[in-house]
Design brief:
heterodimer, A: mainly alpha, MetI-like fold, two-stranded antiparallel ribbon, 2 strands, B: D-Maltodextrin-Binding Protein, domain 2, D-Maltodextrin-Binding Protein, domain 2, 20 helices
Chain lengths: 293, 436
């Protein structure tokens, strides 16, 4: 039986949802509509004139092999960021969950990096891996490895992935940790009495029970890696070397705010919106089937 | 907005406590912080103190790109400043925005302020001048690339520090010797596209783009895949492969390496002088930028980088008068000579250069005149006047990517430049569409 709360009349419920609706309209729907509208024009930067080009901006983008290549880069980047931010977070959460003493301190310290803004995180990592004065690159050099993310695309990708995922581990940790605390102790104790060792319990009981959280984090992290990572990329690599770290959202930023090409930038945002929308639908349609609530 | 008005009021009351008449306010947005920011503040304060009709209010708006963005956003919101600093790369964007700007020569004529177009150095003002010879903006900070030499590193590698480095042929030989002498970073550069393509083309009098590098029309196409450029980049690529040229990044990251004494030779802006002088704990030298002997009409002249001041439209007549007076003040010989000596930027008038020379500055700071000589020895040609390309910031990004392909050994210089041309031309066509 579903539980229902019935309001008498329309005014109160409308009033209650109004703030959220207004915020969504002003900050999400209005800009999105603007982006779609602008994507059909090539305006000059100052807004003095605007030329209607129909789907010209989209044709221009898709005829550019470098733009198409950015899809591949984005896929690699997003998968890596999602994995690198979720797996360590789960691992840390499991360990922190088993702690009896001092878990509060660990928790606080693990959540800390989340407070660091992406661009600042980018600068921090860049400094550690700086080819000339970086601590990490110096140690790597001592070990005989010549770190040079300025010319090596793979290393550059690794660096932006780590810098993007680092702060995110905290966020994911928080959710995993809360979910682990909610796993009923009785189930685990029952399994332990049956002779299931730790990993067996983890795989067959804990992980399935975590699946709603895992699914939620998967969606949120994919969206994060698609939309919110340009600060890190801007400060660390600027999309280079060559185009090895030019992901879709970085191109939106670079073309719009550096290149002043608002038409192309809008078209790219629209494409990105569709890609992420599609991904989210796919996730809900296919992945969610494996989630046990 | 409120803050700047408040600032203006404070400044006005502070500077001219007696004046009761309403003064005309002129907003000036710039991109300078640190030492340069202080020098700009001082210039503005001196101007404000020198007369009582106008008050210039300066505000820092971030780096070059951010300042241009702030100006554009403000124009869209109809809150634009009177004077906006725009880096050389944004020149075509500003020029094409006819409704947003007021050509400098017009403003100056109307304001009645002192303005002699001929007093400006041709190679400096040329970048910001129409093909008819009208100045559109005032060159503010202009520099040009030169070769910096770490004399101690040369000696340590067993190379005579006084070796002639005027041609790339000679530099090539020296790089071999440096490498053989155990130098780990023989050559490093800043601003690779600006120095090794844009300036390279002007210096060898070969086109960087068609239509007089874009001065003669929006239907310009890149020509940077010509034989001269490709030969140079091929040589650089070879040096990169052999560890004789070390790539450090797209901007001026290499400056840190050079100033720390890690590298022997460094191609960088003449405005690097202040930083190198204050940080370098080794004997250094400034030399003219090398050229390939026998290629093009080398050495022609190098072109400038830096920013100019644009006057924006939509203000009152009196305010333009104030803007004109301020620009005229900035162009005056004393202000320019001081700026040139303090910063290492080029003087924008020949008179300021001569004043500097007469004051004995070049004798005390050897090499600081090399940039001036390099710019002014020859009359500029269609290939060496400057560049006027739309979306140029993005095109530079493309060039950076393609150059990285060469340095990493993934592409030949020809492949990389052909690709840069194709990709850059697509952006030029878009710019043409947007501004036709």
């Amino acid at each position: 039986m579903e539980k229902r709360v019935i309001f008498s009349g329309w005014l109160l419920p409308l009033l209650l949802i109004a703030p959220q609706v207004v915020i969504s309209l002003v900050f999400f729907f209005y800009p999105a509509a603007q982006a779609i509208w602008q994507s059909f024009f090539i305006p000059d930067p100052f807004g003095l004139s605007s030329r209607f080009v129909g789907f010209g901006n989209f044709e221009f983008l898709f005829s550019d092999p470098y733009y198409r290549a950015a899809f591949g880069t984005t896929a690699v980047f997003s998968i890596l960021v999602t994995l690198c931010s979720m797996i360590p977070a789960l691992f840390l959460a499991v360990i922190a969950d088993r702690l009896i003493k001092g878990s509060g301190v660990y928790r606080t310290m693990l959540i800390w990096p989340y407070a660091v803004a992406p661009a600042v995180a980018g600068v921090l990592w860049l400094f550690m891996f700086n080819t000339r004065v970086g601590v990490v690159s110096w140690y790597l050099g001592n070990l005989g490895y010549d770190w040079n993310h300025v010319l090596n695309g793979g290393e550059a990708m690794g660096l932006v992935v780590v810098a993007s995922a680092w702060g995110r581990i905290s966020y994911n940790f928080l959710f995993f940790f809360a979910a682990l605390q909610a796993v009923p102790k009785s189930v685990i104790e029952a399994a332990a009495i049956d002779g299931a060792h730790f990993w067996r319990r983890f795989w067959t009981i804990v992980l399935p029970l975590l699946s709603p959280t895992t699914f939620f984090l998967l969606v949120v992290n994919v969206v994060y890696s698609f939309f919110e990572t340009f600060g890190v990329i801007h400060t660390i690599t600027g999309g280079g070397p060559q185009q090895s770290t030019t992901v879709l959202v970085y191109k939106v930023f670079a073309d719009g705010f550096v290149g002043q090409d608002l038409g192309s930038s809008s078209a790219q945002s629209v494409i990105l919106l569709f890609v992420v929308g599609l991904l989210t639908i796919i996730q809900f349609k296919f992945v969610e089937k494996r989630v046990h609530y | 907005m409120k803050k700047s008005i408040l600032g203006a009021l404070t400044a006005a009351t502070f500077l001219t406590p007696i004046a009761a008449m309403a003064e005309t306010e002129v907003q000036f947005w710039h991109a300078f912080t640190g030492r340069l920011g202080e020098l700009v503040k001082a210039q503005v304060a001196d101007f404000n103190a020198s007369q009582s009709d106008y008050v210039v209010v300066e505000s820092h708006k971030g780096n070059y790109s951010e300042t241009l963005n702030a100006g554009i956003a403000a124009f869209r919101a109809q809150e634009q400043p009177h004077i906006l600093m725009v880096f050389e790369v944004g020149t075509a964007t500003m020029m094409a925005a006819e409704g947003a700007i007021r050509p400098m020569h017009e403003v100056m004529t109307e304001s009645g302020a002192t303005f002699e177009p001929d007093s400006y150095i041709g190679a400096v003002k040329g970048y910001y001048t129409t093909t008819d010879g009208d100045m559109l903006s005032l060159p503010f900070n202009a520099s040009t690339p030169v070769l910096w030499v770490n004399r101690d590193a040369m000696t340590a590698a067993g190379v005579d520090p006084d070796t002639d480095l005027s041609t790339w042929q000679n530099v090539g030989t020296v790089l071999d010797q440096l490498k053989a002498g155990g130098e780990e970073c023989p050559l490093v550069t800043a601003w690779q596209s600006w120095i090794h393509l844009e300036n390279f083309s002007a210096y060898h009098d070969v086109p960087f783009a068609t239509k007089d590098n874009g001065f003669a029309g929006l239907d310009t196409e890149l020509a940077l895949n010509g034989p001269a450029q490709v030969a140079h980049l091929t040589a650089m690529g070879e040096w990169a492969k052999d560890g004789k040229f070390i790539y450090t990044g797209r901007r001026n990251e290499g400056g840190a390496n050079f100033r720390a004494g890690d590298c022997a030779l460094f191609t960088e802006s003449s405005a690097g002088y202040a930083g190198i002088k204050s940080e370098a704990e080794f004997a250094f030298d400034v030399r003219p930028l090398p050229y390939w002997e026998g290629v093009g009409n080398s050495p022609q002249n190098t072109i400038i980088g830096g920013a100019s001041l644009w006057v924006m439209s939509g203000h009152e007549k009196m305010e333009y008068k104030g803007a004109g007076e301020f620009l005229s003040y900035l162009s005056s010989s004393d202000v320019q000579a001081k700026w040139h000596q303090d910063t290492g930027y080029l003087p924008i008038t020949a008179e300021a250069g001569e004043a500097t020379k007469a004051a004995g500055f070049y004798d005390e700071n050897p090499g600081t005149d090399i940039a001036v000589i390099q710019m002014t020895t020859n009359e500029t040609t269609a290939n060496s006047k400057g560049l006027r390309l739309g979306s140029f910031d993005q095109i530079r990004g493309i060039i950076d990517e393609e150059l990285e392909g060469i340095w990493a050994g993934d592409k030949t210089a020809q492949e990389a430049m052909d690709s840069a041309k194709e990709r850059g031309d697509a952006l030029l066509r878009r710019f043409e569409t947007a501004n036709r």
